[in-house]
Amino acid sequence: MTRQHLPILVRRLHFTVCVGLLTFVSWALLSPHPFATVRYTSLSPLSTLRTVSDVLLHCGAYGLLSFVCYLSVANKQNAQAKRILLGLLIAHGVSSELLQALVPSRNCDPLDGMANMLGIAIGAIAVTWFRPALRHAMIVIFPAQTVDPTSGEI
User: Rounded to whole angstroms, what are the CA distances from 51 to 58, 114, 138?
Assistant: First the structure.
C-alpha cells in the first residue's frame, strides 16, 4: 500500500465506522432490553450506563453519531450534502423514537426525541468548531498531498 492509497483507506474506514455506529444506536434504541443483553459479557460496564439519565444517553448517542458522520461532509463545499446528512440523522432520530412505541418495555418519549435532535446539533457544531484542527491533522498525516488550509477541503 502506498501513501496515495491511505486517504482511500481512511475514507472507507470512516464509512464503516459510521455504518457500525448507526447500527449500534439503532439496535440500542429498538431493543426491548439493551442493557440486559450485555450484562454477562465483556461489555458489562455498559450496563452501568442505565443509571445515567435516559435523556443524556440519547443526546450522547446522537451527538457521537452526528459528529462521526458529519466529519465526512464538513469540509465539502456542497452545502446540500450537509443538509441531506442532517436531514437523514433527524429522520432517524424521530423514526427510532416513534418505533419505540412498538417495542415491548419501551416507550415513545418526546423528551428523548428532543434529546436526539440536541445531540445531532451538538455533534454537527462540534465538527465545525474542530474543523481547523482536523484540517491541520490531515495536512500532517498526508503531507505529500498539497492541501490549501483556506480552501475548506481536506
Answer: 13, 20, 38
